[in-house]
């Protein structure tokens, strides 16, 4: 009896023996919360980004965005401009602070925040104090145009770089641009993974100092300093009502070695993306548009746009048929204005952001993780081809 081929998951982390050994060393050291490994990861990460930045580790990118906005003084009565085509964390951190997100539609080529749409929002929204561009799928936003908009309005830019390691803009690494801060994610599905984790990167000393304090209950001294000092150092002061956002050394131990592989991981994902683009060239769909081919694209996601009029089945059925054939997929993203909380709070209708809505209705994200073998990539291509060609209208 013929056995079914193994299921190809949509995403799976690529953890090697180096990470495992480092975690074991960390456990045996007796220091498993925020300590020497977190400091090393921060130092290594800042050096990787370059440009004289510093880095503050946190337990998620959500925490990092929250801390960055809090350090910039965002609060009740303020508005923060971002995209509806993102994960809810990008906007929910604004609500944590009592402020309100406002959305601008996306560029239909890249699914990044459209500077022209953002400009229109800024014309009518005088209370906007910050912009959060999201580098969707690992392709940089149009940062020159967004930077000019922010400078003209006198507002901050905090980059949601959860997808963007390593990506570049005008040859500079995302994280090294002249913005208030960039925040990276190391969630299990991201381009490097620590399970949970994130990093705030900035040159703003005051922002970084505030983030370091607020990530651990508003205490003015790191626990590592207090517990490892050779002189009595038990005394500390709580200077603000902070949060519990610190990254433990166990996660940082993974991150140190994942970071060393970030370049080779990106090269592998880029090769998979190139194979997909060639393999799907004659199908009724649009492959990802790379607007600036000279820049590094992190290729966190590979998102197809189905030509639905050319098919006799819908997007959801395509996903079901791929799953039946052993191919894991996802959809990035369900636009925020379609979710009950955001829809009901602000009275959104589906057509309020037509580009985001159209992108969502046609989107299928394919596996692009580094544990895919050459045979896996070929099987994904063949299966997508079979499903679509068998269901032409």
Explain this structure.
The chain contains 14 helices and 12 strands. With 393 residues, the chain is an alpha/beta fold. The strands form 3 sheets. It has a 7-stranded mixed beta sheet with strand order 1-9-8-5-4-2-3, with helices on both faces. Strands 10-11-12 form a 3-stranded antiparallel beta sheet. Strands 6-7 form a two-stranded antiparallel ribbon. Helix 2 packs parallel to helix 9, helix 3 crosses helix 7 and helix 5 runs parallel beside helix 6. The model has no long low-confidence stretch (mean pLDDT 96).
Helix/strand layout:
Blueprint lengths: L16 H13 L6 H14 L4 E5 L2 H11 L7 E4 L6 H8 L3 E4 L11 H10 L3 E5 L10 H11 L2 E5 L7 E2 L2 E2 L7 E5 L12 E5 L2 H10 L8 H6 L20 H12 L1 H18 L5 E2 L15 E5 L8 H10 L15 H7 L7 H9 E4 L7 H16 L4
Parallel strand pairs: 2-3, 2-4, 4-5, 5-8
Antiparallel strand pairs: 1-9, 6-7, 8-9, 10-11, 11-12
Helix pairs in contact: 1-9, 2-9, 3-4, 3-7, 5-6, 10-14
Short description:
The protein has 393 residues and is of the alpha/beta class. It contains 14 helices and twelve strands.
Biggest β-sheet description: 7 strands, mixed
Count of helical stretches: 14
Spell out the helices and strands N to C.
Answer: HHEHEHEHEHEEEEEHHHHEEHHHEH
Strand order within the widest sheet?
Answer: 1-9-8-5-4-2-3
CATH fold field value of the largest domain: Aspartate Aminotransferase, domain 2
The CATH superfamily of the largest domain bears the name Type I PLP-dependent aspartate aminotransferase-like (Major domain)
Cα radius of gyration in angstroms: 22 Å
Secondary-structure content class = alpha/beta
What is the approximate shape? Answer: globular
- Poorly predicted regions are none
CATH class wording of the largest domain = Alpha Beta
């Amino acid at each position: 009896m013929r056995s079914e081929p193994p299921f190809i998951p949509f995403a799976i982390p690529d953890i090697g023996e180096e990470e495992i050994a480092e975690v074991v060393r960390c456990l045996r050291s007796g220091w498993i919360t925020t300590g020497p490994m977190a400091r090393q990861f921060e130092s290594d990460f800042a050096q990787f980004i370059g440009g004289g930045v510093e880095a503050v580790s946190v337990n998620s990118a959500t925490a990092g965005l929250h801390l960055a906005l809090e350090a910039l003084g965002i609060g009740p009565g303020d508005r923060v401009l971002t995209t509806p085509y993102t994960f809810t964390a990008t906007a929910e951190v604004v609500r944590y602070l009592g402020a309100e997100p406002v959305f601008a539609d996306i560029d239909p080529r890249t699914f990044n925040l459209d500077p022209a749409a953002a400009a229109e929002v800024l014309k009518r929204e005088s209370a906007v104090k910050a912009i959060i561009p999201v580098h969707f799928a690992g392709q940089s936003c149009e940062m020159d145009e967004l930077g000019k908009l922010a400078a003209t309005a006198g507002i901050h830019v905090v980059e949601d770089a959860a997808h963007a390691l390593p990506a570049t803009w005008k040859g500079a690494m995302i994280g090294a641009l002249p913005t208030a801060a960039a925040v990276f994610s190391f969630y299990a599905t991201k381009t490097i993974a620590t399970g949970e984790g994130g990093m705030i990167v900035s040159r703003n000393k005051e922002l970084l100092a505030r983030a370091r304090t607020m990530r651990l209950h508003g205490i003015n001294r790191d626990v590592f300093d207090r517990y490892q000092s050779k002189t009595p150092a038990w005394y500390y002061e709580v200077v603000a009502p902070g949060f519990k956002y610190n990254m433990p050394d166990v996660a940082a131990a993974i991150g140190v070695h994942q970071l060393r592989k970030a370049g080779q991981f990106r090269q592998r994902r880029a090769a998979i993306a190139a194979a997909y683009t060639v393999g799907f060239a004659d199908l009724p769909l649009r492959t990802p548009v790379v607007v600036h081919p000279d820049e590094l694209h992190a290729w966190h996601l590979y998102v197809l746009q189905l030509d639905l009029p050319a098919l006799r089945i819908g997007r959801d059925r395509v996903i079901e048929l791929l799953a039946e054939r052993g191919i894991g997929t996802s959809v990035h993203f369900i636009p925020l204005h379609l979710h009950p909380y955001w829809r009901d709070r602000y009275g959104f209708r589906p057509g309020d952001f037509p580009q985001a809505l159209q992108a969502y209705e046609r989107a299928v994200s394919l596996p692009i993780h580094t544990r895919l073998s050459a045979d896996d990539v070929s099987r994904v291509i063949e299966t997508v081809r079979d499903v679509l060609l068998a269901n032409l209208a």
